[in-house]
């Protein structure tokens, strides 16, 4: 069963004559009953391989849920579009009642290569037929995910059909791939927070958990424990720095550029940091790394000319940090990624000095414009100096970690 645990932890302490009563409240995201309507672009602007990547993404996405007819289960419908809609490939909420059958049905959806982009017609069919109130469970939330890489020819139809669907109570999430205009996605979703944009079909996997989080429901659970004590006076309490000044911290690095030895140093640096005593309250940690399918090479039938192969090989030489920082600045600190409005946004960029990282100034500036506090560390011990960023010193991972913590917590607990 799909379940996300959100790291919101609050402590309420009451002092009584008999002991200390501690109530711990944890916000938990659990699956709720959903009627999920998938609207998938099957037009000619999408290559066969990219269409298969969208199919793979949908299979990975729905695999997170309990599929079935139970009260809290998720039911799924699908309609594809290109030149019109392809009803012969569609299935409805009641078509498949097991995860295995649903996954197989998604795998069999063909790419029709339509010479048009009838997005509005597909949304209308989804809302009026597949997710209509007549066929949906009254207690279940109706949600639609529209995936497209192009702009609809009749944009007013798309706008009007999307508005009607939302007015009927359907939440729509617009997933745009590549060059599709943001205005088109906003017309579909109706709200910026329901728009997700990626540069390529390879990147769809990066938004899987974000989409899942948006569909979960939050339930507060409170547990109470009592500990006997011999005093009625509370002991003096000293807040740790994270309680006074919390931070959401991302470590950003590209294993392809660092190499095996420096990547090992980096993982040790991150691990040492999160284990330090000062970090056990008020801090959250995330990683943005450069691992992606493009690093794995290509198959025999991917390219048909020497020029295409040469262009692909050249891509291995391009710096990766720019893309990683862009990904972080776009959604890394958002609420759906676990970001907190009351916490500092912190980024720790791990990079080697040299020609390939001369562009770090632009990445630091981008993060600064977003209000992010930036640190830079070089696993080789060199000191990369960039205006607006704090350079961490220390040759070993432990020394660099201690230096980072000293910046995040300049006054240690228990010290004058």
TrEMBL record:
Residue ranges, compositional bias (Low complexity): 222-232
Residue numbers spanned by region Disordered: 222-242
Protein name per Swiss-Prot or TrEMBL: Cartilage matrix protein isoform X2
Keywords from the named record: Signal
Endpoints of the signal sequence: 1-18
InterPro entries the record matches: ECM_Assembly_Org (IPR050525), VWF_A (IPR002035), vWFA_dom_sf (IPR036465)
UniProt-listed Pfam families: VWA (PF00092)
Domain of life where this protein originates: Eukaryota
PANTHER family according to UniProt: COLLAGEN ALPHA, COLLAGEN ALPHA-1(VI) CHAIN-LIKE
VWFA domain: residues covered: 35-211
